[in-house]
Amino acid sequence: MKKLITSVTMLALLLALLLAGCSLDDPADPTGTVNPPGPGDASTPYVAIGNSLTAGYMESGLMKAGQANSFPMLLATQMGLNKKTFTQPWVDAPGIGSTNVGEGQIAGVLHYTGTTIAPLGITPGDQVMGLLLAVTQPTQYNNLAVPGATVHDAMNAFDQGSSQGNVPFFNFINRASLFGNTIVPPSGGPPPTPGFATQSMFMQTISKGPALVTVWIGNNDALGGAFSGTPTVGVNMTPPAVFEGEFRALLHSLAGGLVKRNGFPPKIVVAYTLGNDLPYFIPKALFEQVIGGAWPWGYEDGADVELVNFPTLSWVRNTDNQGSPIPGAASATNGGAATLTTTEVAIIVDTGAAYNASMETVVAEVNGSGMGKCAVFDVKEFVSNWTAAQKTHFLFMMPPDRLPTPEEITGAANMTLFSLDGIHPNNRGYGYIANGFIETINAAWPEDYNIPEVNVDALSWDPTYGVPIGKMDTGTGQGLTPEAARAMGAIFR
């Protein structure tokens, strides 16, 4: 039955592509330079699709300093590719973040000033295009990941307006204005046709014709609820049944389209979603230790609070909030300061587990069909095995009574692997993630791949963007400007 369903999906995809006026024998590519690779041909060896975690998003934004160490770029480098043969939508400093910090003003990435976390710079909205270093590249990028993308967006979004979260990053990564776009609606068949946009991540991947694809998508389907402080399935979290249907359409169509385009089954690595095991979500006991004791006015959510979101550190420093309980849900004024109760954490955990179980089911279907060769990277388990120090926030690692030593700042054994936003990895964190993908690829297809691991120790760890150690704050680690607080997690709201 599974093979029949998968075959129908493949036929549906081919029909849909023909209806859209796109020949699979001559895929749409503006230069005509991308040809289907054979098993031993490395003309298009690798494409990555996903969200911010794949794009190289770091310190609450996209900037070339972080993108250079996106896990796909690191993986591609280990495969023998370079910035010309593995392309990304490079963004110049100060980067592009996910939030406005004033009328028409776009925040850059975050940095540590020596006393607080603040945006590295602010760019007027009408000047943002000047930061885009590869926007006129005439072919689709190899790293097609879009910060803020959901699993639905992977097949259907081509610009800000067509994305589920109204995410502007789609405009300069998908670049539908350059390539054109056709909306192909779903059809009841026969055969049934999954709907998609011809300049979605999915279709651009088909156009590139890679032999290897990494697919890490789905975190935004759950984390929107976690960042709101009130996770609700069907409101700010994709229902698991809907997620499974969307992921099934994506993976079956990706395998079917590439096997038809290239003449051989693609290799696809699927990575599971993460959960709330991130530095952004602070255990209540640690939060109260950092602020010097229990908040005198309590919590709106009462004694059942389990986690406190990181921007609450900025909220409690605002003297206007004295006398008020810590809010239980996100607020436009506090940058998302919120708490999660034990019950709410359980909703997040259970929903993420359902997503990952459905991914495993769909991977088995595609492998059973013979259209694709899929492997799974359990990145959730991988990250959960990082040490407590590796999963904490930079500010929490600073001794309260002295300056940190260089060894404490740079030592691999005592170093966080997360960037300043507490959500996305830093350079070394992405290095470890890249090695997890490499290990998965080498183990799944040893006859085709023997990719050397990334030397993580050679990657810089610099959340301060050059602030000397001697100028670092020696306080309690509560430094966080209101602008930085709003930037943290803004991509999920």
Q: Unreliable runs, pLDDT <50, ≥5 residues?
A: 1-42
Which word captures the global form?
A: globular
Q: How big is the Rg? A: 22 Å
What is the number of strand segments?
16
Assess the beta-strand content as a share of residues.
Answer: 5-15%
CATH architecture of the largest domain: 3-Layer(aba) Sandwich
Distance between the termini: 40 Å
Separate helix tally:
17
Secondary structure class reads alpha+beta
Write the layout of secondary structure elements.
Elements: H1 2-19, E1 46-50, H2 52-55, E2 61-62, H3 64-67, H4 71-78, E3 96-97, E4 100-102, E5 105-107, E6 110-112, E7 117-119, E8 122-124, H5 153-156, H6 169-173, H7 176-179, E9 183-184, E10 196-197, H8 201-208, E11 212-216, H9 219-228, H10 240-262, E12 267-271, E13 281-283, H11 284-290, E14 305-309, H12 312-317, E15 339-341, H13 342-369, E16 373-377, H14 379-384, H15 406-410, H16 427-444, H17 482-487
Parallel strand pairs: 1-11, 11-12, 12-16
Antiparallel strand pairs: 2-3, 4-5, 5-8, 6-7, 9-10, 13-14, 14-15
Helix pairs in contact: 1-10, 1-13, 4-16, 8-10, 9-13, 10-13
